[in-house]
Amino acid sequence: MESVLNSRSTAVGAGASKSLSDSPLRLRVAAIKQIAHEVSSFDLQSPDDIDLPTWSPGAYVNLLLPFGLVRSYSLVPSSSSRSYRIAVQMERAGRGGSRWLHENAQVGQELDVSPPLNHFPLSEGLHASVFIAGGIGITPLWSMIHRLERLNRDWTLVYRARNRCRAAYLDQLALYGDRVAVSFSDDASTPRPNLQALVAVAQPSTHFYCCGPQALLNSFEEACAGIPPDQVHCECFGVKPVGLSSPCRLVLARSGLEVEVSAGESLLTAVRKAGIDVPTSCEQGVCGACEIRILNGKADHKDKILTLAERDAQTSMMLCCSGALTPELELEL
Ligand code: FES
After folding, report:
1. Which of 121, 186, 201, 208 has the smallest set of CB atoms within 10 Å of its CB?
2. Spatial separation of the C-alpha atoms in residues 187 and 213, rounded to whole Å
3. Beta 207-212 vs 316-318: how paired, if at all?
4. d(CA 116, CA 58)
5. Cβ neighbours for 49, distance < 8 A, ≥ 6 positions apart
6. Is the pTM of this model over 0.85?
7. Pocket test for ligand 1, best of 282, 305, 306, 333 (most atoms within 8 A of CB)
8. Could you give phi then psi for residue 116, rounded to 5 degrees?
């Protein structure tokens, strides 16, 4: 899954993505396999055939692709400790990462890959787990299911996809019988899952996980509104840059500029229009490349990197995706 990562219960600190630039792994594409319509898995292996850094369910890696694209993909189980496996859906309307992988990546090619990061960890306690996947959002949940199976824990999965051809891992999931409920938006005979009802009948200690598009995440958060936050975990596909709901003035301390940002415009767009170069990479709030220090004012944080405490501290923000909570925001830029 090409994603932006979010957990209501856990996040790592700002700068997590520094692992990409500080110590990228040079990995070779060892295998490419189509696993559903427009979904392929890619095995990334150390050319030296050594064990790779370990990872835990919910983890992802950042791939540094040509043209400076950085894209995050969830890791899915593979049988080797010497390779990582990702499953990538071709996003025709996306920004090019998945298209590049589908159209250009070849076996034998080498890519820079971050060590695994995890903002969406699995709770491995004795409690039950309910997984809700939308489309290629199945990928991090699939690794969690593998882990819980090994631990002999109670889990169920609700999996919504556009149609059968596009749903990855259907054959493997069929082995779990009625623990897995699959439905397709193109097939009216498989109705949309009732998340409210699902949550209502769960044991109080159940942990809930959701990964998929924003609309599914919204329904999930609504359904889980009464659940303790540390039992609710989610990961979404992407964060759009926030168009401000009301105008804001940016005071750029280093540049000595003041930039008026109009309603509907994003901070990054406004800063760029003013001729200020902001280093960015993912432009989805996951890599940390655009982290800027806040000197005054409050940001409306939309990234998936800062912890709740760091958000509250209002000392830095990811400019690519965040907005402003105050009419004026002074940045070290
Ligand atoms: Fe990656 Fe902003 S967090 S560019």
Report:
1. 201
2. 19
3. unpaired
4. 10
5. 82
6. no
7. 282
8. -60, 140
